[in-house]
Amino acid sequence: MWATLRRDVNSFFARDPAARSVLEVVLCYPGLHALWFYRLAHWLWVRRFYLLGRWVSHVGRFFTGIEIHPGAQISPGLVIDHGMGTVIGETAEIGEDVTLYHNVTLGGVSLVKEKRHPTVEDHVVIGAGAQVLGPIRIGAHSRIGANAVVVKDVPPDSVAVGVPGRVRGHDAVLPEPGDIDLHHNILPDATMELLQALTTRVAELEAELAELRQERERVG
Q1: Distances (CA, A) of 211 to 72, 150, 202, 203, 220
Q2: Pairing mode of beta strands 137-138, 73-74
Q3: pLDDT band, very low/low/confident/very high, at 82 (cuts 50, 70, 90)
Q4: Domain residue ranges in the chain
Q5: Can you tell me the distance from the alpha carbon of 86 to that of 83, in angstroms, rounded to the nearest whole number?
Q6: Phi-psi category of 213—alpha, beta or left, where left has phi over 0 and alpha has psi -120 to 50?
């Protein structure tokens, strides 16, 4: 347990350049506080103290603005940066060294008591305002763009942007093994690429139409 708590602190300190000391992280980072509330609530939850676990989770939400269901499974190294409004559902699973920004939702889309929340693999970065919904899987080392709405699986080493989320290959150079990839600003603009493709196609059709008109005038 102490090793996990120490890793939680070190993860925030390593991934936030604004952090100036370990003590500052321990005292002033609500994302870390929410994670510790969760770890206590989860400890109670797995021992079937369900009501007490939910109460601890509720207290954590009151103080941090971050809601993590005690039934979620969260590996070491999670960083919730500026996490106000972040929600992590009951059956969500989060791998190691994942980073979530504020107002992220790992939500469900079913009323059935089964696996209904996302599985997020190791080293994933999810941008501010992104909504990842349903029992889908976000592959390791992937990035989810800000305000994306992702409802389908994302393969490893990919990016997903837009509404609904469109999956693309990884555009940037992959980090070295053990490094943390936080470059969630390096993402393709799927909407602009679509508009450019449509513009190019329209230009081609106009050129073909002009040729047909010229040919008709010569024949006529």
Answers
A1: 63, 44, 14, 13, 14
A2: unpaired
A3: confident
A4: 2-187, 189-220
A5: 6
A6: alpha
The third-level CATH classification (topology) of the domain covering 2-187 is UDP N-Acetylglucosamine Acyltransferase; domain 1 (2.160.10)
pTM (2 d.p.): 0.78
Burial label for 24, CB within 10 Å (0-12, 13-18, 19+), is: middle
Q: What is the DSSP letter of 107?
A: E
Q: What is the pLDDT of residues 129-171, one digit of tens each?
A: 999 999 999 999 889 988 999 999 999 988 888 888 788 766 5
Give the Cα separation of 90 and 158 in Å (integer).
Answer: 25
Distance of alpha carbon 143 from alpha carbon 167, whole angstroms: 10
CA 31 vs CA 34, 36, 87, 93: distances in Å: 5, 9, 12, 17
Candidates 194, 187, 106; CA nearest to 142 is 187
